[in-house]
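ok so i was messing around last nite and threw this chain in just to see what happens. nothing serious, just curious
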Amino acid sequence: MINTPSSSQLGSGKRIAFFRSMRGKLIMLFLAVSLIPLAIVGGVAITQLQAAKAAANEVSDNYFPSILNLDNAELALMHIIEARKNHIIAPDDATMRAMETEIQTQQKKLIKALAGFESTLDAGIETAAFENFKAILKVFLQANEQVILLSQDNNDDKAQAMSVGTTNEHFEKALALMETMRQTNVVGSEKAKFAADKAANTGVILTLVVSLVVTLIVVIVAVWVANSIAQPVLILTDAARQLASGSLKSTGIVPIEAEKMNLRQDEMGEIGRAFDGLTRYFQAVIEDLVQVSQGLAAGHLSVIPQSEYRGDFIQIKIALETALSDQRLVIEDIVQISQGLAEGNLRVMPQVEYRGDFIQIKTALETAMLNQRVVIEDIVKVSQGLAAGNLNIMPQSEEYRGDFAKIKNAQETALSNQREVIQDIVQVSQGLREGQLRVTSQITYQGDYVQIKDALEKALLNLRQVIEDIVHVSKGLAEGEQNITPVAEYRGDFIQIKNSLESAASKLAETTAQNAKQDWLKTGHAQLNNLMSGEQDIEKLAKKIISFLTAYVEAQVGLFYLLTKSKSDKPAYLQRLADYAYTDTDNRPRTFLMGEGLIGQAALECKTFSITQTPEECTHIIRSGLANALPCNILIVPFLHEETLKGIIEIGFSKTLTTLQRDFLEQIMPSLGIAVNSAESRTKMQTLL
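result:
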């Protein structure tokens, strides 16, 4: 809501108090200008006279007593010196005592005079000089007492020498310091006299200066009073001209000046507040008219006048409210028609009474709604035909006019394009049904139909890639390629095909690997059996066995231990009967008792031992003249015949032993037991024969 000025802001009309009125202020100002200068001049004169009096008092109360006390002290010193001399040359004791009394009397006068002098000293240089004088005076008095004592002892020569020498030097220093202090006080008294003269002269000069300054202030105040009356009048005159020219926002009054004028409590303040209230009222009314107009321009139909209209301005408010009401009814009717159309009600009609030029709006609305109804009914007919799958349907109405003609053209073009697109999709689908993976779109797709074309082409491409990849994987699996995998990008439900292909390839590879392991085990077993067949010497058989086993499992070194029974009552032992690629460089034992070392322990427990060594624990195996190998893994396997130990196989690997290699060695151990047992039996038989 726009704020309008109240009656108090337009001017109160009350009588102004005397001290707040301009008349009262002028009288008070005249009295102040007349009396204040006299008071200032009198105050300055009194101040300077007091300064002169203070300087004179300083001379009489401070410097003159100081000089007088110094003179008395110096006179007392002179009397002390004279009494000391008379004491030295005194003819009898009575004279000496009289001189001593005189010295004591003069010392008291000296102390009194110095005390009076000290009371007038200023802190600083004078105090330091006086302390120095007191120290020298003390030494002098002590020396003087020694002279008196020497004189009392009738040692006049020493007393005279000391009096003329050391004592006299201290006396001269004391006199010199007293003279210095006297000169200081003389200079101070002269300065105080100069200060008194200066204060008197300054008083005269300041009185003249203050008189001139006060006169200047009186002139300035007079000019200021004149301006304080004339300037507001000039400001209000200029503001009235601005208001008359229609400038309501800027009346030409500086805000600071306007605030000063409104805060005044005199007649000029009343005039300023009344003018400010009038200006604010005009501004409030004009701003209200502007906000109503701007509200209408912005489409706010509920906008109404907010300001307080007075006098003839009330007619403007009534006219505004009537015009706004009529316009609001018309626009609300147009809104209800538009809402009916938005809801699909093509039979909606105007409901209110249109007046004046608004009748043309009503006629135009009815004509537009009739044409729109005909066009929409035709569009519905075309849409229903498309929904029924009739691609040959076309717009039939002749009422497409103006921009509606563009709708008709757009419909015909859209129907034609849609027909071509659907026919192209049909030919692509028929090609796929016939197994033609190279079939492609033949027409130009436009607008959003381009997405259909892209989707078709991508689908065809993905389908072609998937089928080609399936063919590739199937051929690979058929040819026994174990590591073949799908390489195309499978999406959607095709991922299941990819998973099936990968699973089939994985299972085939697993089966092939398992078969290869079994073939390797069976081949090794068969080759070993073939190697051990026939009648063979035990040593040759052992050599063949260890050589074959070491080479077949890709080991680097192998040892063959045979369980040998002693001819005497000694226990059986394991004897190294054969080896493969082994060099005995550190004189390792060739035989082991049962339970001795890992070989004996494996034989005792009939248990396989697998050992992993660090490089520091390994022994180099000389494989050739140029290369060495370190057996980091060692497998010790016992072989038995009918649960009877026959020997030990020890094999060293430079690489990690695989499970397959270990399984092979453990599986062929029974065959080794049978072969060794057969060879031993033949050897015993030959021995018996």
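not much to say yet. Strands lie at 557-564, 573-580, 591-593, 609-612, 621-622, 628-629, 633-641, 644-653.
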